Amino acid sequence: MEGNLSTMPLVDLLELLHAERKSGVLEVEGAPPLTLRLQAGEVVGGGILDWQGMEAIASFDIHTTEGRFSFKPGLQSGKVLMPMQTLLGEWARLNDECRRFLRDIDSPSHAFESLSPTGTYGVFHGGRSIRGAAKRWGVPLVIAMERAWTGLRSGELTPIGRYAWYGLRIRHPQARRRQRQADELSQRMDGQHNLGELVASGIEPMRLRRYLIEGILSGDLVFPGRGWLLRDLIWEVEHAERKAT
User: Fold this and answer.
1) What are the pLDDT digits (tens) for 186-216?
2) Which sequence spans correspond to the domains of the chain?
3) pTM of the predicted model, to two decimals?
4) Which residue from 27, 74, 121, 241 lies 20 to 30 Å from 155 (Cα-Cα)?
């Protein structure tokens, strides 16, 4: 079973698979891509590449009409995340909430600074990303995004020019090849220097974002954390494009 979301929206597709109690893997092409595993018409797992779980699923635009899909039948294991109708409702709610915060915050990878080491925003003292704050608080990502969004609007938080992904060290498979066989970025992405160091050396962040997105989507870059990284980088590019128009 395959088709296009322009003719079969994602919600309609999932309701159909649920009604027919289908088991298998649903792959949705896109930037980012989405994988869902279903057993007897219920979602038992899924996410964006190696970023798995409900947070990852809900970060995918449930309302999109762009991209192709394919469904391959097969038995799946795992616990039902939520009954289908509950899952679709929660997915839509989380997705809409996230998009509201993303009007002012380009991605959960963005780091913010709080002048006070105490109180609600003390976790940001010295600079911390929203993803990092969510872990420290022990709360879902969308709640951390809401708190950061509120702090930004109230003036208690200030965005700083740093992102969670700056700390990643990624080794490009062409890093050790001769210059004529590999471009500048792949050569410099040698796993010895983190991405923040590449930015500090003069590589423009937006150029690096687009390079990473292309590499992850093509499968040239495979490393732990590429799922959440891809999601955040695409959000950051979309935010910059909205500001430019």
Assistant:
1) 888 988 889 999 999 999 999 999 999 999 9
2) 2-98, 102-163, 168-244
3) 0.93
4) 241
